[in-house]
């Protein structure tokens, strides 16, 4: 390090070039980076037993004694917990669900009518617990929509939307989102399945 750099603490042109270099992350690393940056709570699981354990810790941490769950595929994880399970959406009850895809480029979580029925995300509870698998990671929203189309050939779902922010009551300066806040306090249980 040169004397002048120490004295004035200025970046040299080499330091500036190093900071400009683009970093390429894998799908999962990029998703986790963006997801956490937006305020999401991320729990990585290597087994289904770990999913159940983390789910129990979420219920304990938040003192939740009831949950809304409409999908039989994830209701199995709720067995053994002292929580009342409802299939009716309620504004004050956390929602435990799956999702369609995890969008790596921006950390969004893509949902459809398969999870939300006819409800808009903004009209649902503020507290979401989402169960997903690493195979649901896609690069961008376009790949997510293509994935939905190829996975649901007989009956393409409607009401496709995404949770884009995981910090409640955050101001959004984007005028296109005015009056349509879909910010959620969201926990993601991501199960390794590759």
From TrEMBL:
It comes from the Bacteria. This is Lactate utilization protein B/C. It comes from Pseudotenacibaculum haliotis. The lineage of its organism: Bacteria, Pseudomonadati, Bacteroidota, Flavobacteriia, Flavobacteriales.
């Amino acid at each position: 390090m040169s004397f002048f750099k120490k004295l004035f603490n200025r970046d040299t042109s080499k330091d500036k070039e190093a900071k400009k270099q683009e970093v390429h992350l894998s799908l999962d690393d990029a998703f986790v980076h963006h997801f956490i940056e937006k305020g999401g709570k991320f729990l990585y699981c290597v087994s289904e037993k770990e999913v159940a354990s983390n789910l129990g810790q979420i219920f304990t941490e938040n003192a939740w004694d009831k949950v809304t769950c409409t999908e039989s595929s994830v209701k199995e994880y709720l067995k053994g917990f002292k929580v009342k399970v409802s299939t009716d959406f309620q504004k004050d009850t956390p929602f435990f669900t799956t999702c369609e895809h995890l969008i790596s480029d921006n950390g969004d979580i893509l949902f459809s009518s398969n999870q939300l029925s006819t409800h808009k995300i903004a009209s649902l509870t503020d507290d979401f617990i989402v169960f997903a698998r690493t195979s649901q990671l896609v690069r961008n929203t376009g790949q997510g929509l293509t994935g939905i189309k190829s996975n649901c050939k007989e009956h393409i779902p409607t009401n496709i939307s995404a949770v884009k922010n995981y910090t409640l009551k955050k101001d959004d300066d984007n005028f296109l989102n005015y009056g349509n806040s879909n910010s959620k306090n969201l926990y993601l249980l991501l199960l390794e399945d590759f």
